[in-house]
């Protein structure tokens, strides 16, 4: 039953009409209705369907939950300090066991309240009122209040902190954050923005206590289900069950169920053997060859989901020869996308255009997949002043997927006039320099809205300088103006029209090549229950439990 006291945003009835006409999918209706502050219950009622897929469900509902046990995860354990500066999924997954977010995007790509109880947004989509859950405590016993949220926002928006949230929340200044009371904050945006709830689940957006001094490993205080026991870079990170976690399970039983999480730092070539030998129970973002080797292994279950996760071939437009659009476009023409997908990800994904927007995004504008055109690439290089071809160095992580893409691109680009020298380095070394490399491959995680990655990676601050995650240093005023227009456009079809133009600009003069969007898997021992594949690759273990090993 719909709660008559709940205020529904004026745009929601229009979205419901589009859904009933068949011009908006059920998932997209639910996504945008909830973004505009409609509760999940009411949104599902308006869609005429039951509330399914929005909360965790057991892999075997007939089994009684069992408590205790350890989950061992294969992952890099990298150096971290301030959560607002997180730049890798592995580090984000480790810190999220201790710290939490105001919102959460589930496996259906729908964003809902987490540390928030609810939110409200005005008709102009410029004023967002955030209502905190009451009764949430940090692991030091202190209650979560609006002051902690204010502190966190101020950290994100402090340019000296260097957070990617600074560019994602470009539409908000610290002067626009109003403390209404102990559990309510109101955001007064500089311009309309539809993606606020989804931006608040960006992995650097962990809510910090107002006593935080800058190093989370030294001061691991958060509202999450586990506490940090030990953290050793390059070795392991150990997390213990928090006995007073605020969130309850389906039957009001205390969470979490597991006693311990251990993240083991493993090299890529060790992970399959570690799974097969029982050293670890699950993997962070398994590579396709790991999925292929383990998908039918006894005692192991595999869950999959389509994503907007891509290996981005990025060119720094401030560094020759990538400052010449003809050279960039010539390189893009050297991608045989199907061959690259087959070789690097075993055909498990969707082919991509050279724009950072994926078919899973609601406003994606479908365009033909560019063909492999080495002769045209060679002609462009001649036009750019390289009649004898061009030698360039490609730097990438020595992880499986990136290494295979790099090797295949080297082969494919040779007939197009490119002599690509490969510089394969350790992941930690790559992340130390990723925003300054001339030419590289960067793994970009899934974002639930198409506008999010564009804002993070292809915009500038108020002074015209590239934002912190703009690794290509590409600043195109026409592109940015269109993106800002898309971010304030509620109508999905109108936003898709804008996205068509954004995609055209990226393909015609943009700084990236992109062959495919990868499928994500959660590969885990079958005795672990309540498991699902998350499109963002996030480790959400608060209600996972360990059974007796039967399937």
Descriptors for this entry?
Dipeptide-binding Protein, domain 3; 551 residues; 28% helix; 20 strands; D-Maltodextrin-Binding Protein, domain 2; alpha+beta; five-stranded antiparallel beta sheet
User: How much β-strand is present in the residues?
Assistant: 15-25%
Radius of gyration: 23 Å
Largest sheet: 5 strands, mixed
The strand line-up of the biggest sheet is: 8-9-10-1-11
Uncertain runs are 52-60
CATH homology-level superfamily of the domain at 306-518: Dipeptide-binding Protein, Domain 3
| Structural class by sheet pairing and helices | alpha+beta
By DSSP, the count of extended strands is 20
Mean pLDDT: 91
Into which percent range does the helicity of residues fall?
25-40%
The DSSP helix count reads 17
| CATH C-level category of the domain at 306-518 | Alpha Beta
Q: What's the overall geometry?
A: globular
* Corresponding CATH architecture of the domain at 306-518: Roll
Q: What is the CA–CA distance across the termini? A: 36 Å
CATH level-3 fold name of the domain at 306-518: Dipeptide-binding Protein, domain 3
TL;DR?
The chain has about 550 residues and is of the alpha+beta class.
Walk me through this protein's architecture.
This protein has 551 residues and is α+β, with helices and mostly antiparallel strands. Among the domains are: 1-52, no CATH class; 226-305 and 520-546, 3-Layer(aba) Sandwich (D-Maltodextrin-Binding Protein, domain 2); 306-518, Dipeptide-binding Protein, domain 3. 28% of the residues lie in helices and 20% in strands. The chain is built from 17 helices and 20 strands. It has helices spanning 11-21, 26-35, 40-46, 89-95, 146-156, 165-168, 196-199, 271-276, 288-294, 325-332, 337-345, 374-383, 400-413, 427-433, 450-457, 477-487, 492-509, and strands at residues 70-74, 103-105, 111-113, 116-121, 127-132, 177-181, 184-188, 226-232, 236-241, 260-264, 282-283, 300-315, 349-351, 390-397, 418-425, 439-444, 512-513, 516-525, 528-529, 545-546. The strands form 6 sheets. It has a 5-stranded mixed β-sheet. Strand 14 (390-397), helix 13 (400-413) and strand 15 form a beta-alpha-beta unit. Helix 1 runs antiparallel to helix 2 (26-35), helix 11 (337-345) packs antiparallel against helix 13 and helix 16 (477-487) packs antiparallel against helix 17. The longest helix is centred in the last third of the chain and has 18 residues, at 492-509. It is globular. Mean pLDDT is 91; it is low at 52-60.
